[in-house]
Amino acid sequence: MDTSSIITGTTLNRYQLDIPSCTASLDVEEFSGAEKLSELYYYTITFTSAEKNIDAAQLLSKPAMLTMGGGALQQLADCKRVHGVVTAFRRISSSEDQSTYQITLQPFLSLLDKQFRSHRFFVNKSVPEVVEQVLQEHHLHDWEYEFNLKQHYPRREQINQYQESDLAFIQRLLAEVGIFYFFTLQEEAQSEVVHFADAQRALMFDKTLPVNSPSGMSDSGAESIWGLSITHNVVEANVTTRDYNPRDAQSVLQSATADMTRGNGEGITYGEVYHYKLRHRERGDKIDPQTETANFYARLDHERFLAHQTLITAISTAAWLAPAQVLTVTDSLPSTLPAPVQDPLLITGTGFTASRREALRVSLLAVPYSETLCWRPPLLPRPKVSGTMTARVTSAKANDIYAWQDASGLYRVKFDADREDKGQGQESMPVRLAKPYGGDVYGFHFPLIQGTEVAIAFHEGDPDRPYIAHALHDSRHVDPVTEKNSTRNVIRTPANNKLRMEDKRGEEHIKLSTDYGGKTQLNLGHNVDAIRKLRGEGFELRTDSWGGIRAGKGIFITADSQPEAQGKVLDMAAVHSLLTQAVSQMESLSQAASAAKAQLLQYEQQQALMEEKLLALKQAVLLMSAPEGIALASGSHLQAVASENIYMTAGQNVELGAKKNITLAASEKISIFTETEGIEAIVAKGDLISQAQSGNIEVIAKQNISLTSTTEGMTFTAAKTLTFTCAGGAYIRLSGGNIELGCPGDIMMKQSKLLYSGPASMQSNIPELPDSGPQSMSFMLLDALGNAAPSTMKVTLFDSKSKEQIWSSAFNDGESGCFEPPESENFHAIIGDDKWTSLFSYNDEHDIEDETDDDLDFDEHGPQYDGELNEQDKE
To answer: Of 328, 311, 307, which Cα lies nearest the Cα of 375?
Structure first.
C-alpha cells in the first residue's frame, strides 16, 4: 500500500492512521508504543475526527495501520508501518469542530488472549506443533507465521492447557523451550508476520546507526543514536537441573553444571542454581545436548540469567528500529564508546513516542550480541492444578472387559473435560496408578477397566504430569457397599471374585469366593446365603468343582478344642495322649502274643511313627484327631493304601462288616491272636473252608476239640496216611488200603454184633489244590511328574553271583513285562537307554538300592554289564 500520496496530499501530519472499516477521516494527534522480543507490541494512538460519534463497531477487532513518515513535510517517506487490530477504543472529548478518540493497536495475536480454556489436552505433539495448531485454529495463514528453528523438538506424551488463554498458553510453551518470537511487516500483504526462532540465525543483521546527539532543537534530519547507558548486574554463576523418570527409574537425570560464559564470568557472577523441575525424561549429551533433556534445560536456564547481565539503553530517531535487529553503533576513530557497545547489540525492546508537537523519539533496550550465547525469553510460571480432575479409563478395544495397559502397567484415560475427539485408547499419555503399597513385582493393584471413573492428580500440581489418584463410583458404576449393606466391607472384581467381611454385631463373617466352575468359597464365622439366611457357623471350604488340600511338610486336622486360639497351632496334647495309649495297648497285646507263641505285633514301629513323624509333624504326614469320633463314608468305594504298614488300634472293639464279602489276603502270613475271649468263625449259610495249599493245618486245644455235623456226616480224607493217636500210645492208622490198630494195653470192643465180609474199598475224593507258583515281579518307571517312561527304555536282569543275564524287557506305558525272580532272590537290574543308565540291586530282604555305574555302555544288543559294581553318587 502506497501512502505517500495520502501523507502529502491530505495533511502535513507525519503520522497517519488508516482503518479501512472506518468511514471517518482520522488525524493522529499523538501516539506511544512499545515493542519487545517475545512480547506483543502495543500502541496507544490518540486522534481527532470531525465525526462526532464514531461507531465502535467500525473499529474494534478491525485491521488498522499506523504509518510513521520521515523526511521533509512536502516529501514524506515511509519509515515504519505498524499493522494490527484495534483492541480498545475510547472517545475522550468533543468540541464543536472535532472529537478526540483513542485506540489501542496490537497484533492479531493479541486476540488469542480472549480465548480462554480451563482445560485442553494435546497428546503426542511437540511444542512447535501445538503452537502451530493453535495459530491455525485462529485462522492464521501459513505466511502469517514462520518457524525458523535450529533444534528438533521431540513430541511430548501430553501437553495440557489449564486455566489459560490460548495466548498465555503458547507463550508459556515457547518460553519453556527457549523459543523467542518477534514481528515484521509483510510488504506485499501489508500485514504483520510473527517469527518463531531459537538461534541467532533468525535475527536481522546489517543494521547500523552513528552516535550523534541532537544539537538544540534540530537533528538535521539525520538518523542517529545517543544517550547510551549501560547497566551491569551480578547474575547466577551456573545452573544444575535434575528430574526423575519413573519409566527409567535407575537413570540419574541430573545435568552437568552449566556455565554458558565458559568461565569468562568468573568474579562477576555468583551463586549456584539447582532446579528440580519435572520437565525432562533424559540426561542428554553434555556438550551438544538434545532438546528437552537435563543438560539442554540447564544451559537454557543459565542463558536466561545471562540475558540480564548487561543491559544497554539508548535514544534514537530511527523509526525502523525493532526487536530482533542486530545493531552496530558507529563512532569516530578511535572510538570513545564503552567496550560493550563497540560490538554489535541485539535489540530486545523499542519504545516510540510522537505527536503533532514533538518529533518521533525512539528508546531502545539492548544486550550485547554473542554468537555463542543466545537470548532467551524469561520462563513463565506454569499453572498449578489444585485438586483432581475426573476422567474415564479407556482402551483401544471397544467394550473391553479387561484392563488395557502397557508393558509397565500404565493406563490411558479420557478426561471428562476433554471435548476433542482423539483416537480410541490414545486420549492421554500413559498414566500411573497410585496404590497404597508397591515394590519390585509386588504390591497392591486392582486393574481398572474401560469406563471406570478415576480422579486424576498431578505431580506438584504440574498439568503435564498426571497420574491416577484413585477410582470412583458413579450412578453407572454402582458402589458395592451402599445403605443396603453398609455393615459389609467388600472387595469385588468385575468377574465376581469376592472378599466380603461382615461387621454386623452377632453376624460377623468373612467370605472369599470365585464363580469359576460354579462356586468355590471359603466361609468363616456366621455363614449366610444370598438372602442373608443362616447356613451355618464356623468355617466352610466348598466348591462345585474339584478340590485339593496339599501341605509339603504335613497336615494336622483336629476337632480338639482350642478356645480363642489360646495355644500353639500344632498343639497335639490330646492326640499325643491317644497315640501313646494306642502304642501302650499294642505293646501289652504283643507281650501276650509272645507268651502264646503268636505273631508279635510291631508296636515299636508304631511308636517310631508317632515319635519320629506324627508328633509336631516332623515329616510330611497327615494326622487327624477328634475327641468324639471320626467317620469316613463313601457312596461307592473307600480305599486305604500304605506302602509299608497299616496300624489300627481300638480301645474296645474293631468291627468290620460287609453286605457281601470280606476278603483278607497277604503274601506272607495272616496272624489272629486273642488274649481272653477266643475266636468265633460262624457261617450262617454256605461252607466254611480252610486250606493250607502248600503247608500244614494245625488245630490245637488245651481242652477239648469238638467236630459235629448236626444233620449230615463227617468225612476225614488223607492222600497217604490218616492217623489217630491218643496219649498212652494207642493209635489207628489208615494207609495204603490197610487199617492198623495198635495199643500198649487192651482193645475193648462193645457191640451187639460183629459182622465180617470180603474186602471192600471207598474211593477218596482228594481235591486238587491250585498251584500259586513262584511270585512274579515287574518294574514301573515314571519321571518326577508321574509321566510314563518312553518305549526306548529297557530293563535287563543279571544274577548277582553268576553275573549271567536272566531276563530283559522293554517298557510299555511305563511298565515292564513280568518275570520270576531267581531262587536266591539276589539280582541286579540295569534300566535305561542310549542316553541314560542306572544300576539297581535287589536282595532277599526286599531292599532296592541305586548303584549307578557311569561306565555302563550300550551296544546294538543293549546294555552290557561286566559285574563290577562301583558305588557312585546318584545323578
So the answer is: 307
